[in-house]
Here is the input.
Amino acid sequence: MSDLMRDIISFLDLHRAKFVYSDNEKISESEFVVLNEIREKKIDVDLVYFNTDEETNSSFPAVFLKKVSTFNDIETLKNIAETQKQIWNYKKILFLYVYSEIEIRIYNCAEIPLIVTTEDFDYQNELQKIEIKAYKYSDTQQLDELNKLFSRISIDTGIIWTSEEAKEIKDKINLQKRVDKYLVSSLVNTSKQLENNGLKVEFIHKIVLRSLFLLYLEDRGAAKKDFYSQIKKGAESYFDILDDVAATYKLFERLENHFNGNVFTLERDSNHQIIEKISIEQLQIIKKCFVSGNDNTPQTKLFEDWRLFNFDIIQIELLSEIYENFIAEIDPTLKENSGTYYTPPSLVEFILNEKLPVSNNETQYNVRILDPSCGSGIFLVESFKRLVKRYEKAHNLKNLSDFNILVQILKENIFGIEIHPQAIKVAAFSLYLALVDKLDPKNLWQNANYKLPYLINDPEESDEQKRGKNLFCRDAISDLSHIEELQNFNLIVGNPPFGTKKLQNSIRIYCNKKDFAKEKVLPFLHKATLFAPKGEIALIFNTKVLTNTGGTYQNFRKWLFQECYIEKLYNFSILRKVPKTFGGQLFGDAVGPISIVFYQKEKPEIISDTIVYYAPKTYVKTNLVEGLNIDFTDVKFLPREECQKSDTKIWKITMWGGMNDWMLIKNISKKYTQSIKEFLDEHKDSYSFGSGLHAPSTDQLKKKQIFSPKEIINISQVQRYYTLTYALKLSNKVFRNINQNIFKPPYLLIKEGEKNRDLCASYIDYQSYHTAALSISSFDKEDFNLKLWCCLINSTFAKYYLSLTSASWGIERERTQLNEILTLPMLVDINEKAKLNLDDRFNELISTIQSDFNYTHSKNIEKKIDDIILNDILELSEKDKAQIDDCIDFSIDLFYNQVKSVALKPVLKDQPKEYAQILTSELNKFLDEEGLFANATIYSSNDLKSSPLMMIKLTHNEQKKEIYVSNELIGKELKKIDQYLWEKKSKNIYFRKKLNYTIGNDIFIIRPNQRRFWSKSMAYEDASELILEILNGVHDGND
Here is the structure.
């Protein structure tokens, strides 16, 4: 135990954490940026543990660590509280590990910091409010939990989001209490109070922007005590100034005169006199907001000089995000009407890492960038910062602080279009902050040359001098060809508005002209190629553009995929379902399903045969770092030729499935070329079909085109396969006249929605009516097709097929629409034996349901019916059936249940063996002529639940052997490989989602310990991949 007392870091396997103040360690550029940030912001921690994304070689801070001598000293506890407050303002980190010689305490950095009220504040008890857990080294049970939940493996694999053992800890983490969320709610509460006090919303915006800017300058050290004392005697801070109305306006005038620009102007009359009015009481409301936050509770008396928010630590891009959310909260109709939603910084970074990287040796800083719907300017701010970084690299500068060069980079390269005047002011404000952030704070108020440039070009502005040429307050879809500055861009990025309601006239006209669907985002996607005819484009759009089967949506896809070059596409639809308190939460509010497309109008010389498509199936994170999370199963390489077909279903199929699913559905579509709907349309003389009863219109009531059935079926009582007459209920309602042939028994009732998440078709052999469902009736009372369709719709195949092909399921809705059910293939050319067998089993099931119902017997018959559909009629292979089963059991279950899904649970005892049997069988078919056999080693099930990763070892031998079960603990084996990898390549296996690694004659297959990664279908897929790797010589020896 003494070793552990001396080094808890090694026990937690965090020895790769970086010292904040060490200059000697080998660190990456992204690690240097973070460590330098921590030093500059004086965040009082000793070590930072990073996760590294090997694709981009970017490192992300995951945990901060701090060493203390004891937890019994009041100054130490005070320091811990202050450090937690610093990290809360920093926002990027969830956990602070504070450790001494005898214990370690984990603090919650998503929790609002302690509000210090008195000099004798009880830190010992109060700190427990932000403490997640404390562990004594002397308690072996506590150490076991510590290692399981907070070790390096746990951090890298994000076990806290999925482990049942971590539920108590997860429940303590509420992301709605992070600095951005709390400051937004404080600003909203403040705004409402000020509005109730008589201030106009536009004026409140101005006061808030000025306050944010002044506090930012103060916290960065730009405004010393003597600066404020010149404005008001004895004043040492902005908060002292707010105690005096006259002094406040004296400061606001100085801000206006010194910094210029479009944002800080004061309202004046024709005589140039200030006409803004605010009271001391209103100023105190503003003061409270920025000192301790405003949660609608009375002001607490605080300890002298204590403040909650630190604008030196809060990231500047967060300020524009905070303000944009603030605007959305106080004016929700603006967001609803415009179709614009705020873009999370992690998504902006994600896009710009692709299109404007700085992690390598990029030095091109003259890149003209446009955001055609710039909102508060988050894309433009991050782009500007990256261009500055590139300039610094090109000129070997540690920090570019030359004001004139910074302005030049900004004015020559950063452009935005935004129709809403308030939003464009926030964009200008955000860019000003980014500009000022590069300057020496000591000179900000002293240097008279620091006049911020006018950026906004507003046609309403009469003063030509104040019309900028960067941020255009215009309708981006209108004709802007006469504006020279808005032509020939190198890069277009942004998050255009989307939706089909309250369309601007310009959008309606544009869509009509191009014969596109009337959808806000489509003109932006199209017009981007006019703004950048030879440039690159990365825009966010709503996913239904990919899947909607309407002709005008197909017209748009035809243009996009045939006339442009698509490089890659990300489908982030699943992120709309993330709970606000959860670790994978990306969007601050409910938005529709979104995707990102990377494309260009000009086709490159070498055209790839595939388009890279990323479609995450879960929002559950597999690490603790900020940002987006993509698993290896989420990445597909789609045939470009197929993607260019405007009616292709490949986008939806591979969203929830993979290429094997696409091939399976493609093969079935070749075999059965007609849908049920097409068959019914062709055989109208034999069948009647249509939707159920509907309420009559006013005109129909007048003309008495109505009827009133005595009984109707209660739709909630409808059962799969057959519905008993107890579902009938008396009715006194009036319905419009309808083709009553669709209700002639026997008929098939197809229910809208699902029954216990299964499709529901019911065979009705008695006279009845119903609402809210589809009916198919045959003129032949012995018609086999009604039974066939009933069995097919209720089958696992139908659930699989429709989940993967429905245009809306899993994107905008959680159910398949009625009209889509009839897109199932019409099964023809069924052999007589299979027909007879299906007919017998169906009749047996109906008899069972009608007689003394036996649930177990009924389910057994349903299983036999399902087997007939899969084996005797569709004639599917074992591989195909594994594909269907795993899609339903894992992918579809993951959509519905997410964090509680069986897909994320540790592997079952027999799973590794089943996986290994399929894998070696497939490999040995390939190796048969080589005289070699692939033999597998799996690991004892005793270690399955506790290990976040699973591993199988493949060895090539000249003899075929049985699968060997090793008693070695997986954890120990993984650590050996992890150490080997780290020493050779500085790679960390725990942060990787997938690894096939060769050491000598052994191939190690390493995946997360989740059932979805060790399924039968995954074994078939991995076998194909390994065969390809072997053919390409990937596993020819030591890596």
The CA atoms of residues 949 and 1008 lie 4 Å apart.
